[in-house]
Specification:
Layout (H helix, E strand, L loop, with lengths): L16 H9 L5 H17 L13 H12 L4 H8 L3 H4 L4 H8 L1 H10 L10 H18 L2 H15 L6 H21 L3 H15 L1 H35 L4 E6 L3 H10 L4 H5 L2 E7 L2 H14 L1 E2 L5 E2 L12 E6 L5 E8 H9 L3 H4 L10 H17 L4 H11 L4 E5 L5 E5 L4 H8 L1 H5 L1 E6 L2 E3 L11 E5 L16 H33 L9 H10 L5 H9 L5 H12 L3 H4 L9 E3 L7 E3 L11 E6 L3 E6 L5 H4 L6 E2 L1 E3 L7 E10 L4 H11 L3 E10 L3 E10 L2 H12 L4 E6 L3
Parallel strand pairs: 2-6, 12-17, 13-15
Antiparallel strand pairs: 1-2, 3-5, 4-5, 5-6, 7-8, 9-10, 9-11, 14-15, 14-16, 18-20, 18-21, 19-20
Length: about 725
C-alpha cells in the first residue's frame, strides 16, 4: 500500500462518477478542503482494495455514499473525510497513526468513535451489539459528529439492504426501528428519522408496507383537488394580511400511519381523513400573526393548539401546531414555523453546520442533545451491564413527552407516563434519593402519581428518606432507574461489608483472636495475595459466600505466625450471628422452608448469593450440613421488622363461598395473601395452598387459629411442616 503521508494534490482525472458527484456536493467547502475530501477517497480506495459489498460493488462505494448523505446536510470537511474512512480502522490495514498523520487527530477521533466492536470477544451477539452501541453513545458525548456519521452509515445500509439474506434484513431493520430512528428523532433529525422508519418498516413487514403504501396513493389521488383548494385558501389569506409565507401540503408516511393504527386503535380511513399543511414564515413574530390569520379563515378545534416555540421539545424542535375544522368537514393540521425552525426540525443537530443559527442556547438542538448525551454518560458510569444500559437508553428514546414546570418556572421534558419520582430524579439525583411525596398543582400526591403536561410539580424531601426497591416499578426514565439501582447496589455492598465483618470477627474469636489483633502488614500481605484492593472487598466476598470465614480466619492467624494447633479450632465454637432480616442485600430466605422470625434457623453460604437462611428442620439441611465450612451459625435478633413469606396448606369442605370465607379470616388476622391455588379437589373436599405475608411465627399461629374457627376447614397447617 502506498504511504498515506503522500499529501500531494490529488489527481482527479481518473475519478469514478460517484466520487465526481460527491465532489459537486461538497462544493460549498473551500477548494483546499475539497481536495482533502478527494484525497480521503484515494486513501480509502487503496485501503479497501479487493473488498466488495454483498451487492458485488467495490466496498469504497459505501463510505463515499455515506459522505454524500452528510454533504447534503452541509457538514464540515472533517466529518465528510471521517465518513469516507469510517471503516478503515476496523476492516483494513490502515493504522490510527497513519490516519491522524494524514488527516489530523480530529478525523482519527471521529473514525475511532464510529468503529464498531465486532472483532472483540463477547459472550453473545446481543452483548456485542449492546457494547458497540454503548461505545458509540460515549463517542457521541465527546463529539456529536460521530452519531451523524453513524446515522448516515445506517441510512445507506438500509437503502441497500436488498443484498442481505432475510434474517439479516429483519435483524438490521428491527435494530433501526428500535434504536437508530429514535436516536435521529431525539437529535431532532426528522428527515433521517422518517426515511429510517419507512425503510425499516418495508424490510421488517414488506406486506403491511405494500398494502398501506397502495392505500395512501389511492387516498391522495381522491383528495388532491381538496388539498389544492385548502392550500390556495391559506396562501391567499396570508398574502392578504401581508405575511410572507410558503405553504406546503404534508403527507403521512406508511410507518407513521401503521404506528398510529396500532397505538391509537384507529382505522386507516380515520387517519387519512386529516389534511396536513406546513406554513413557513420569516420570523417568530410572523408565526403568531400567521396563527391568527389561519384561525380567522377556519375555526380552530378546542384544545388542539400547542406552542412549541415558547416551550420547545426536548430535542430543540420549535413550531406552532393547531388543528382547524376545514371546508370539507375534515380536520386540517397546520404547523407554523420559521425557515430556521424548519431547518432545525428537518436536520436537528446537523442544522448548526448548514444554517447559521442565532437562537439562544436554550432553544438550540445541539445544546439539548449535549445535555441528553451528558446524562447518558453519567448513567453508563453507574451501569455495569451493557444490556442494562441499552435498555435505559431505549426508555429514554421516547417519542411522546410531557412538559412540566418547577416551582422556579423552569421547564422539564419527561417521557409520557413519567411519575413524580421521575421528575424528582430529573431535578437532581439527591432530590430523587430523599423524596417522600410531591405537590402537583399545589395538591399533595404520592410519588408514583403520573404527570400530565402543564402541571407545576414540587418535590417534598426528608433527610432520612432513602430509595426503595419498589420504586423501580414506578419510574420510566433511564436516569431514575440507574440512580435507584446504584443506591441499592451501594446498600447491598454496605450490608455485605457489615455482615462479612461480623462473620470474620466470630471466626477469629473462635480462634482466640480478633481482626484488630491482626497486624496491618499481615492483613495487607493477605489482601495482595488474594488480589483484593481493600479490606471491604474481603468482607464483602465473605458475606456473599465467595470466601469461607473460618478458612480466611485460619489463614490470617497462620500468616501472623501462630501455631497450627491454634488455627484448627472448630468452627462450631463460634457465637451465633444475630440477624434482623433488614440485611436483605446479603440474606435470602429458602423457598423450600420459608423461615420466619421465631424459628430456629441455620445459614448456608451460597457462592454469589450470600447467606441463604433455612429452618433447622428443613429437609434440605441434612444435605447442607455435609459442607460444614459453609454452614453459618445464626439466630433471629429480638427486634425483627418486615413481612415474611409463609405457606399454609388448608383442607376445606368443597362448597360455594368457602374460598372467600377462608380469605376473609386471613385478612382479619392482618395478613396479606400473595397467592392461592387448588392442590387437590373433588366433589366433597378440596386442599388449598395459600402464600401469605406474616410478621413472625406468632403471627402465623394467629392466622391458623382464625382459619380453623371458620367452621369450613377440616385442617390447617404450615407448609412444609
Amino acid at each position: 500500500m502506498p504511504a498515506v503521508t503522500d499529501s500531494s494534490t490529488p489527481d482527479t482525472s481518473t475519478l469514478p462518477p460517484y466520487v465526481l458527484a460527491l465532489k459537486e456536493r461538497v462544493a460549498y467547502l473551500p477548494e483546499p478542503q475539497v481536495e482533502r475530501v478527494v484525497r480521503a477517497y484515494q486513501v480509502g480506495a487503496v485501503a479497501h482494495e479487493g473488498q466488495a459489498r454483498k451487492s458485488g460493488e467495490p466496498y469504497i462505494t459505501h463510505p463515499v455514499a455515506v459522505a454524500g448523505i452528510l454533504a447534503e446536510l452541509g457538514l464540515d470537511a472533517e466529518t465528510i473525510i471521517a465518513a469516507i474512512l469510517h471503516d478503515t480502522l476496523e476492516d483494513t490495514a490502515l493504522s490510527r497513526t497513519e490516519l491522524s498523520g494524514e488527516f489530523g487527530e480530529t478525523v482519527a477521533e471521529l473514525v475511532d468513535g464510529v468503529t464498531k466492536l465486532d472483532k472483540m470477544r463477547f459472550s453473545s451477539r446481543q452483548e456485542a451489539d449492546a457494547e458497540s452501541f454503548r461505545k458509540m453513545l460515549l463517542a457521541m458525548a465527546r463529539d456529536l459528529r460521530v452519531i451523524l456519521i453513524k446515522l448516515a452509515d445506517r441510512l445507506h445500509n438500509m437503502r441497500t439492504l436488498g443484498a442481505k439474506d432475510a434474517p439479516s434484513r429483519r435483524r438490521i431493520a428491527r435494530e433501526t426501528l428500535e434504536i437508530y430512528a429514535p436516536i435521529a428523532q431525539r437529535l431532532g433529525m426528522n428527515k433521517f428519522k422518517a426515511e429510517l422508519q419507512d425503510l425499516g418498516f418495508r424490510a421488517l413487514y414488506p406486506d403491511r408496507y405494500r398494502v398501506i403504501s397502495e392505500r395512501i396513493r389511492a387516498a391522495l389521488g381522491n383528495r388532491r383537488e381538496a388539498m389544492g383548494k385548502i392550500e390556495t385558501a391559506l396562501s391567499t389569506r396570508l398574502t392578504a394580511e401581508h405575511i410572507t409565507a410558503r405553504v406546503v401540503g404534508r403527507i403521512k408516511s406508511p410507518w407513521s400511519i401503521y404506528s398510529k393504527m396500532r397505538s391509537e386503535h384507529k382505522t386507516f380511513a380515520q387517519l387519512m381523513d386529516v389534511y396536513g399543511f406546513r406554513v413557513v414564515v420569516d420570523s417568530a413574530m410572523s408565526c403568531y400573526m400567521a396563527l391568527g390569520s389561519v384561525h380567522s379563515l377556519y375555526k380552530p378545534v378546542d384544545r388542539r393548539f400547542k406552542d412549541f416555540i415558547a416551550i420547545p421539545k426536548a430535542n430543540g424542535y420549535q413550531s406552532l401546531h393547531t388543528v382547524l375544522l376545514g371546508p370539507f368537514g375534515a380536520p386540517i393540521e397546520v404547523q407554523i414555523r420559521t425557515a430556521e425552525m424548519d431547518s432545525v426540525a428537518e436536520r436537528g443537530v446537523a442544522a448548526h453546520w448548514a444554517y447559521k443559527t442565532d437562537s439562544g442556547p436554550a432553544n438550540s438542538a445541539q445544546a439539548r442533545a449535549r445535555e441528553w448525551l451528558s446524562s447518558l454518560a453519567d448513567s453508563q458510569a453507574h451501569t455495569a451491564s451493557s444490556s442494562e444500559f441499552i435498555e435505559n437508553v431505549k426508555i429514554d428514546l421516547f417519542p411522546d413527552e410531557v412538559y412540566l414546570f418547577t416551582p422556579r418556572g423552569d421547564i422539564l421534558a419527561l417521557p409520557r407516563n413519567a411519575t413524580a419520582l421521575d421528575f424528582a430524579y430529573a431535578v437532581h439525583t439527591d432530590v430523587g434519593d430523599h423524596a417522600v411525596a410531591a405537590r402537583v398543582d399545589k395538591k399533595l400526591v404520592p410519588l408514583r402519581t403520573r404527570l400530565e403536561s402543564g402541571q407545576l410539580v414540587e418535590i417534598i424531601t426528608a433527610p432520612s428518606a432513602v430509595p426503595n426497591p419498589a420504586w423501580l416499578e414506578s419510574v420510566v426514565t433511564g436516569k431514575a432507574r440507574t440512580a435507584i439501582r446504584q443506591y441499592l447496589k451501594h446498600l447491598q455492598h454496605e450490608d455485605a461489608v457489615d455482615f462479612g465483618h461480623r462473620m470474620l470477627d466470630r471466626a477469629l474469636d473462635a480462634l482466640g483472636t480478633s481482626l484488630d489483633a491482626i497486624p496491618p502488614a499481615v492483613l495487607d500481605r493477605f489482601l495482595e495475595t488474594a488480589k483484593l484492593k481493600r479490606l471491604e472487598e474481603l468482607l464483602s466476598e465473605i458475606a456473599l459466600g465467595n470466601r469461607v470465614p473460618h478458612l480466611v480466619a485460619g489463614q490470617l492467624v497462620a500468616a501472623r505466625g501462630k501455631k497450627s494447633s491454634d488455627v484448627q479450632s472448630a468452627p462450631h465454637a463460634m457465637e451465633k450471628i444475630r440477624i434482623t432480616g433488614a440485611e436483605r442485600g446479603v440474606l435470602s430466605f429458602g423457598n423450600c422452608c420459608h423461615p420466619l422470625p421465631g424459628d430456629e434457623i441455620i445459614g448456608y453460604l451460597s457462592s454469589g448469593k450470600g447467606i441463604v437462611v433455612h429452618r433447622v428442620e428443613c429437609p434440605n439441611v441434612v444435605e447442607l450440613r455435609k459442607s460444614p465450612e459453609r454452614c453459618v451459625a445464626i439466630e433471629w435478633d429480638r427486634d425483627v421488622q418486615g413481612d415474611y413469606r409463609a405457606e399454609l396448606r388448608i383442607e376445606v369442605i368443597n362448597r360455594p363461598g368457602v374460598l372467600a370465607t377462608v380469605a376473609a379470616a386471613i385478612a382479619a388476622a392482618n395478613s396479606n395473601i400473595e397467592n392461592v391455588e387448588y392442590v387437590e379437589r373433588d366433589a366433597a373436599a378440596a386442599t388449598l395452598l395459600f402464600a401469605l405475608e406474616v410478621k413472625n411465627r406468632k403471627h402465623l399461629a394467629e392466622v391458623i387459629r382464625r382459619v380453623r374457627r371458620t367452621g369450613v376447614v377440616s385442617g390447617a397447617y404450615r407448609y412444609p411442616l
